[in-house]
Design a protein that fits this description.
- This protein has 94 residues and is mainly α.
- The protein has a domain of 60 residues.
- The protein is 49% helix and 11% strand.
- The protein is built from 4 helices and 2 strands, in the order αααββα.
- It has a two-stranded antiparallel sheet.
């Protein structure tokens, strides 16, 4: 009986940890698409990279030089900024 239980648990524990590996390409694709959309000024492409519920924050240095975080109310302002025509592209380096 004990040997049967051990075999049972070993078999099913192997099944539990077996996961489909995620490729680096599938992780990088939405990130690359986001930055390409920013460079092109394509707010629809940028919007397609985000989930329905988004938490956005802007991190900058305050007057004292310390980092400050400003939480945003969604991505609409960001999308508007991306889609606003400009002479220079929004080129961010990863």
């Amino acid at each position: 009986m004990t040997k049967s239980l051990i075999v049972f648990f070993l078999f099913f524990s192997g099944q539990l940890v077996a996961q489909n590996p995620v490729s680096d390409k599938s992780i990088r694709e939405p990130i690359d698409r986001l930055f390409l959309g920013m460079a092109r000024g394509d707010s629809a492409m940028v919007h397609s990279c985000f989930a329905a519920q988004v938490t956005m924050a802007t991190i900058s240095k305050g007057k004292t030089g310390q980092p400050t975080i400003r939480h945003e109310n969604g991505i609409n302002d960001f999308l508007k900024a991306v889609g606003t025509p400009r002479t220079e592209s929004l080129n961010e380096t990863i």
